[in-house]
User: Fold this.
Amino acid sequence: MGPRDSPLLVLVLCLGQTVHMQNRVLPKPSIRSEPGPVIRRGQPVTIVCLGPAWAELFRLVDENVRKVLPDQTNVSQRGLHWAQATFHIKAVSGDTAGSYRCLYNKGPSWSDPSEILELKVTEEDVSTLFSVPGTASEVTPPPTGPVSQTAPSSQNYTVGNYVCMGLAGVVLLILVGILAEAAHSRHRWPHRPQEWTQLSSCQRN
Assistant:
């Protein structure tokens, strides 16, 4: 393989890496309800979806993965690695009780839905319910200690694209330099090799 083939090889490898990152499965978000999963009829509830910091849009869906509320693009950052979106239900009823999941997207790619959050409606006062152990509303919470390996590998999705774009730019500059050098050499030596041989023969005669 000649030196001129190396930039093309780098470009092909870079594009392959970009496609691989775009096809990578995004980590699942988590979902919870505030103030809890059991709400007194007529009271408000907020469903919170938590995902990676680079999530662009969050969607709340029912058990059949049908959108139930407008998508949320106004997300708030939670530290360096997480972002969350909130979905508000002003007054719960029998129609709003049920199973909820959330998901998010990054460009054209969508994550898998979160675990199921069961929202229940009751006629009783639930103000003391959340002090009872075992009634936590959050499903699959994110780690509170060091960030898991999922987050850094997902962040490489964006970093890898930037690296590939930079490499592609360098490769294009190299190719332009090679073409410019070839054009300069042709302008400097306009005669073809066959013509050089004929000229040498005439000079000897």
Q: What stands out?
A: Residues 16-22, 131-141, 143-157 have pLDDT under 50 and may be disordered. Residues 150-188 form the longest helix (39 residues).
